[in-house]
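Run log // design_07
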């Protein structure tokens, strides 16, 4: 009976019988064992936490890349977007898809890193250009816009890449404009803004989605901290055009293969252009065409005759209707014809937009 009572007393102290834990395990060993268990628990927790955070980062990056693909970003522009998003904390990274302020806050830190890790194969000027284009594609996307008649027409809240004759550069946002010039908020911080002083000549680059890139030179009129006043330029250059999307058309065309050795006159095949952009067309015909030979494509739009060399890129065949669809790229086209097609697309797109808005 006494033995049973002793057993109960020992059990109530720590669920061990007859001998205490310290009698079973030496105290130094017990302390080390407890420390090992605590350290192992912390390591497991950190590894699980890091793995979950990494999975969240990868998931956010994937969502950002998908959005970038939908907006027509290049591979390098998507890399820039993901990196700027990662500069923000993980919880905020995906907000970059809809919030331009999140993007703009990350640009300054990204520029600091870009200066430190300058790649000779990718000039910083090219990096800044892609930052400007990425911002426009994400937050001001448009299929088509009419080209600017003057730089006074540029919209506010657009980014601009700035560079001095001495090679200093920065990116800023047009926060206001007037008849005399632009007000630009720089992103590069005090160190960068100190290089952009009044009377300094700067080269500016802006890009409009659905239109293209614009460049001009102008002097700095006023500089207060990271706020610049740049004179309105009288002259500017449209340095590149944005690729316009296909429009639906219904234009008969003639497809002319190269003449064979025994043919005096080349064969002419009938077709129909039903999608068109500046550089490509999708045509429909009942005839099977060859991928490895060039074709001449002839058609007329608004009494303007166009003749261009073309090459087949891909095809779709509907057997039940005996109809072939070919995506062809224009390999040789005159500047006049290319300009006409671009203006035609812009007119069609802007007219359609105005009709829908009304």
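design_07 sequence
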């Amino acid at each position: 009976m006494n033995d049973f009572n002793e057993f109960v007393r020992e059990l109530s102290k720590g669920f061990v019988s007859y001998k205490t834990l310290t009698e079973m395990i030496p105290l130094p060993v017990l302390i080390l064992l407890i420390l090992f268990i605590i350290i192992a628990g912390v390591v497991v927790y950190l590894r699980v936490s890091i793995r979950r955070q990494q999975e969240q980062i990868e998931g956010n990056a994937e969502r950002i890349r998908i959005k970038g693909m939908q907006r027509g970003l290049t591979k390098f522009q998507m890399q820039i977007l993901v990196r700027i998003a990662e500069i923000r904390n993980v919880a905020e990274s995906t907000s970059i898809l809809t919030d331009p302020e999140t993007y703009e806050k990350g640009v300054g830190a990204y520029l600091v890193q870009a200066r430190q890790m300058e790649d000779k194969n990718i000039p910083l000027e090219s990096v800044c250009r892609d930052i400007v284009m990425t911002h426009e594609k994400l937050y001001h996307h448009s299929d088509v816009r009419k080209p600017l008649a003057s730089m006074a027409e540029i919209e506010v809240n657009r980014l601009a890449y700035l560079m001095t004759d001495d090679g200093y550069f920065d990116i800023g946002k047009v926060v206001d404009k007037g008849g005399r010039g632009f007000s630009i908020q720089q992103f590069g911080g005090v160190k960068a803004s100190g290089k952009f002083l009044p009377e300094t000549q700067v080269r500016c680059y802006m890009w409009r989605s659905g239109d293209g890139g614009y460049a001009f030179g102008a002097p700095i009129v006023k500089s207060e901290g990271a706020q610049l006043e740049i004179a309105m330029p009288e002259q500017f250059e449209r340095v590149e055009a944005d690729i316009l999307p296909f429009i639906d058309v219904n234009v008969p065309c003639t497809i002319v293969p190269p003449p064979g050795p025994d043919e005096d006159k080349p064969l002419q095949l009938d077709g129909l252009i039903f999608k068109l952009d500046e550089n490509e067309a999708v045509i429909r015909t009942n005839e099977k065409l060859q991928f490895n030979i060039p074709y001449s494509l002839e058609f007329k739009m608004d009494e303007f005759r166009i003749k261009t060399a073309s090459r087949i890129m891909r095809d779709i065949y509907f057997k039940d209707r005996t109809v072939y669809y070919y995506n062809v790229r224009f390999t040789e086209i005159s500047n006049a014809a290319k300009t006409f097609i671009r203006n035609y697309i812009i007119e069609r797109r802007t007219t359609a937009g105005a009709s829908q808005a009304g």
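Helices lie at 2-14, 21-24, 27-70, 75-87, 100-116, 124-139, 189-193, 335-357.
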